Amino acid sequence: MTLTAPAPPRRDAPTALRLAGARTRRVPWVALGIIPIALGALLFGMLVQSASKRSAVVVTARPLAPGHVVTDADLTTFDVAVDGDAALVPAARRGELVGRRVVGSLPAGSLVGFGHFADGSGLEAGQVVVGAHLGPGALPVPNLRVGDRVRLLAAAGDEALGAALGQASVYLVSPGTAAGSQFVSLAVPQALAPAVSDAAAAQRLRLVLEGGTGRPGR
Fold this sequence. Notes:
This protein is an alpha+beta fold. It has helices at about 15-50, 195-200; strands at about 55-60, 75-80, 100, 115-120, 125-135, 150-155, 165-175, 180-190, 205-210. Among the domains are: about 55-120, Type Iii Antifreeze Protein Isoform Hplc 12 (Alpha-Beta Complex), CATH 3.90.1210; about 125-210. The strands form three sheets. A five-stranded antiparallel β-sheet has the order 5-8-7-6-9. The N and C termini lie far apart (about 120 Å).
């Protein structure tokens, strides 16, 4: 009987093919490990860029009513991310607001611009301030604002409108004691003050809002 030794394995046996296949399947896992690293680097770069655009600006430290004269204690500063077009007051110019008059109501923590304030008392030479408590029928709009220009009329008897008294600007506005009413302080020429005061005391004063006040839709 003749014994035959088994032939040695061939170099191109399937074992080599299996090893090549195992290395191919590992490639996607390596790629998936790189993606979170790349995303993390991108996010870090965005945060650094955002932080570099933050600036210290002026905000109100307490609620400020229209007509209030600003003091340094009324203001504070805060770091915010500022758009290049935002018209905010930089912290370095905080002192320029002290002594100015608040134009409209500002809640505590409001970001402010120079347009929220007016210089001095807001009165021109020869002007005085006259107050009136006006109801819905006497107000042209429910939200009069400081600086609005109005025409003054005095109702006569049962007539809705009567004699024209002249023109005025709204100096200060605050809520009235009755629903829908307002306390309105009006800057008027000194010669006109007695007639306006009398009409207000008799509940005959009526206001008409004039154009050119910068209100939306006008």
